[in-house]
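Bug #77: duplicate submission created two jobs. Keeping one. Sequence:
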Amino acid sequence: MGIVRKEKIKYKLLMHRKFFDFFASKWDDGESSDKINQLKKFFYNLNVNISGNVLDIGCGTGILVPFLLKKSSRDCHLFELDLSKEMLRENKKKCGDKSSLINHIHADTHHLPFKQHQFNFVVCFAVLPHLSDQLGALKEWQRVLAVGGYLLILHLMSSKILNAYHAKVNTVIAQDYLLPVKQEKKVVEQAGLNIIEAIERDDLYLILSQKV
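Kept job's structure:
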C-alpha cells in the first residue's frame, strides 16, 4: 500500500471517529420504533446458532445488544467494538445489569486486538460503507473467526437507498459507499469466506458467510 493511500485511510479514520464521537450522545434520538421492530423480527428469524464469543463490529450505542443476547446461547460472550469512545460510553450506559455479559472494546476494526479463530459469530450492522479499507477489514474479520464461524453483514435498506442518503448528508459520510450485494459478495469471497446467503431489496441488505 502506497504512502499516499495510507495517509488517506488514516485521515478518513480520524474524521469518522470525530464525527461519531460528536453525535454519540444524540444518536439514539434518531432510532425509530420501526427500525427496532425490523431488527427484532430479523434476529428472531435468523437461522444461525449464536454461541461462544460474539463480535459486534462498529457497535455504536448498542442497538444490537438485546437481540444478540436474546438470540445467543447461555455460553455467549458479547464483545462490543467501536472506533468511537463516545459511542462506547453511551453503549455502556444502556447495558445496565447486562454489563457483566459484555466486553466493550475501543479499537479500529482494520486492526483487531484479538487472536485468530476467537469468535464464532461476527456481525457488521450499518458499518461497512464507513470503513477506510473494506477488504482489509473483511480479512481481519475472517482472521478472528473460528472455523465454522459466521459473518453477517446487514443493513435495513438497499445499497442504492443508503448511498443516496449518504450523498445528501454534507458531512464526512457523504462519500461513504456501499457496493451492491452482487459486487460485495465477491469482496467477501476474496477475503476468504464462503457465501451462504445474499439478499438485496429496498428494506434489506444481507450477506451471510462462513469460514470453512
